[in-house]
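Hi U.,

Before I forget, here's the chain from the pilot set. I'm dumping it here mostly so it's searchable later in email.
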Amino acid sequence: MKQKETTTKLAIILPGAGYTSQGPLLHFSSGHFFNQGFDVLQINYRFSEAELDPFDSEGFSTNVLLTLDETLKETHYDQLVIVAKSIGTLALTKLIEHQKYKNTSAIWLTPLLHRDDVYQTMLQNENNALCIIGDKDFCYREERFANLVSNSTTKTLLIPNGDHSLENKEDVLGSIDMLKDVIESVIQFSY
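Structure:
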């Protein structure tokens, strides 16, 4: 999604394997950044979770990086924000190691905290970052999340009863409130 006028701000959306950029968390995040004058680049994967299993994180991340390099080769942005959900946080972990993405602000939605590479990258993060995860998410690790809270560059939000989709399947209205809390945090983070 490109602005009518040229902009130097870009938001990159990295969805989960089973959670596309049309899912409400990423749809509303994309809309917010677009309304704030960002171009928005949504990377949509073309494989199922079952197909992803044999996919190693290095190969996945390399493919995302190549896609970004090809897509952005003739453009320059001064301000970058990457919003990554679930498996997208694997790519984010590798992207911020590259010089081009080193000063990127990062929003980690339901990060794969159980993976050491994701956790260590988040723990050592020196950039402006936001981490949002539910306490019922299979990726949530209480001790690791507590350590992230102590990183002064990372804002955190723990969603009570939130699963990996940041909702509660047994409480529709409660899930809508969770979504509102997440989007409010994304908006506050970007100011």
